[in-house]
Amino acid sequence: MPAYVRCYSLRKEFVFQNNLATESIKNSGRHFTDDSLVALENISFRLEEGDVLGVIGLNGAGKSTLLKILAGILKPTSGEAEISGSVTSILEQSSIFSSELTGIENLLFYGNVLGYKSSYVKSKTPEILKFADLELFGDVKLKNYSSGMKLRLAFGLMKELSSDILILDEALSAGDQIFQEKITATLDTYFSENRIVIMATHDFSEITRYCNKCLLLEYGRPAFLGCVEDAVSIFYAQNRGKQEESKENARVRLISAKCLPEQKSFSVNESFDFIFEFEVLENNLLLDILLTVANNHGPVLIDSPMFKTNHKTAPAQKGLYKKRVSFPSPLLNTGTFRISLLFGDGDDVTYLKETNVVSVEIKSDGSFFNDKIANAANSFPIRFPLEWAE
Question: Is 94 in the same domain as 192?
Fold first, then answer.
């Protein structure tokens, strides 16, 4: 029987004991009923074999709650999650494993859950432990594992004891760079085998690389379900200009930001300027500014006066300031790009971080030559010409 995942009007509420939900929490944009927080509401979708669903949203949007319901760890308050097929879930805290069992005992138990015979799991155990770099820890109880060790064990299990459905929650950051490469190679193979995958992550490069569908959650509600590129663009549009730092005791305030000429799109052969105004709110403030440019796959460009030779961070006085950053042509390939700003002391103190303050679309100029470049190199966002010589 083909594997599938079908969700019908999923809803999950968490009760606040003794009315512990403060007014600030209740005014945060989340949905409450009496003394319950509505973590998920009206979640419906269908996945068939070969579907890879990305789940995105800000912290607290309900991503982990949804995946825990699909993994069978939480029960929905109402609605139904219908799943056909074996499931492997690799969650942030590796909830699939028992802390009182050893690594090997957990492999045997979960292998049996997936429908594998104990003799087969035992034959695969050395390969799983080797893949996870845990050969010396197979007989150690999970309660003595670090979170990274648990995730590596789960990925080893996934590699050798494959299931019909894979659930990943912020799990692709396990281990060092070498293990990351192992994970990438394993997932590439897994995705090529027409299985169902559901993954939640803040790394949009993973979403755009692996997924063919995307669910955008906002305070537990579905804001969008469909094309990955559209979901990422909507996420950035909804959260444009949101400050990550508290405004209390602010030292810098962004007043305005825009591109000149004031238009929504530019040709690859058009230059433009990014202009922003800000206010410094105290005297003698050591100040440097970092600018980043990102597309739907992640950051592509970073610049700052700090990068110039012999630059020294200088103190700024209270008052209004205006900066102009020029983008030459050609620089950016075709696509949508977002500009963010970070104000800090030039070392490790951040005063203000403003994300996605301006969005600009770069289009082909219509010539065959440039269209050919854009189509062949659409995943390469920079097209600045280098100097070539014999």
Answer: yes
The pLDDT tens digits of the residues spanning 266-280 come to 988 899 999 999 999
How far apart CA 227 and CA 338 sit, in angstroms, is 19
pLDDT exceeds cutoff 60 at 264: yes
Same domain, residue pair 226 and 281: no
Residues 113 and 226 in one domain: yes
Total of domains in the chain: 2
Tell me the residue ranges of DSSP E strands in 105-244: 165-169, 196-200, 213-218, 221-226
Distance CA 353, CA 344 (A): 9
Assigned token pair, 206: 């993973």
Q: Say if residue 300 is in the same domain as residue 217.
A: no
Of 87, 83, 121, 92, residue with least CA distance to 104: 121
Helices vs. strands in the chain: H and E counts, helices first: 9, 19
Domain membership of residue 223 as a residue range: 4-238
The encoded tokens of residue 121 equal 């799991």
For residue 46, tell me if it sits in a domain: yes
**Residue 260 and residue 214 share a domain:** no
E strand map for the chain: 4-15, 31-33, 36-48, 52-56, 78-84, 87-90, 165-169, 196-200, 213-218, 221-226, 252-260, 265-267, 272-280, 285-295, 298-303, 314-316, 319-327, 335-344, 350-363
pTM of the model: 0.66
